[in-house]
Amino acid sequence: MATRKHIGTAGWGISGELSQRFSGAGSALARYARVFDAVEINSSFYRRHRPSTWQNWHDAVPAHFRFSVKLPRTITHERQLVDAEEEIAAFADDVALLGEKLGPILVQLPPSLAFERARAALFFTLLRRRLSGQVVIEPRHVSWGQPDVDAVLAESDIGRVFADPQKPELRREPRARSFTYLRLHGAPRVYFSAYSVQELTRYAQIMREAQADIWCIFDNTASGAALRNGLELQAILARM
User: Fold this and answer.
1) What is the largest CA-CA distance in the chain?
2) Which of 109, 147, 229, 240 is the most buried (most CB within 10 A)?
3) What single-letter DSSP state applies at residue 36?
4) Cβ partners under 8 Å of residue 171, min gap 6
5) Domain 5-239 superfamily per CATH
6) pLDDT, mean of each 10-residue run, the chain (240 residues)
7) Neighbouring residues of 59: CB distance < 8 A, sequence distance ≥ 6
8) Are 232 and 23 in contact (CB under 8 A)?
9) Rounded distance between C-alpha atoms, residue 230 and residue 130, angstroms
10) Residue 226, Cα to own-chain centre: how many angstroms?
């Protein structure tokens, strides 16, 4: 099976200045999906959606399109990975409505949540009972940089997000032969700063050399930089 290289943004809002690049009939998602082949759904972090919403999203995009979906904050931030079986089951039922268009599940942890081996191992076991596809985790407490964390993640086949910016203790370089999820928040100003051509070229090189599926999601959406950077990365990668 050919390696798939997905580029997209967190959400599919289209700014006025770039609307001509996403022209045509249909919803914003449908127009977005004519340009990009992936998107990260962040709204699932804040609330549940109706079954009809998930179905509409599924139907709005072509067959090759994929959604990554962020795990709800009730699981990660409120329950802090403990006693969340019902919430995990409800989330799994929701995302199942995306069918074959469901991509990775994103687990973003709160900065205050330290690594505890027993808690993490039990949570991942419960998560894997309901979700069999790609799962990636973005921890933000430095304790998740300990060497034994990678072993716990490997036991449940959980990948690490390659985030930018990232604390040095948590940084892991992408491996060409492993599934990779790049999540670019913008630096130095998180959610706002755009990436330079030089920086985008570096990420394009990582994507070009990937021997397994790789995602690159731009989360610097607050200033509208995400769409521009996504388009620029597409163009750089196409020229390589």
Assistant:
1) 51
2) 229
3) -
4) none
5) Protein of unknown function UPF0759 (3.20.20.410)
6) 90 89 92 97 97 98 98 98 97 98 98 97 97 97 95 95 96 90 96 97 97 97 95 97
7) none
8) no
9) 32
10) 14
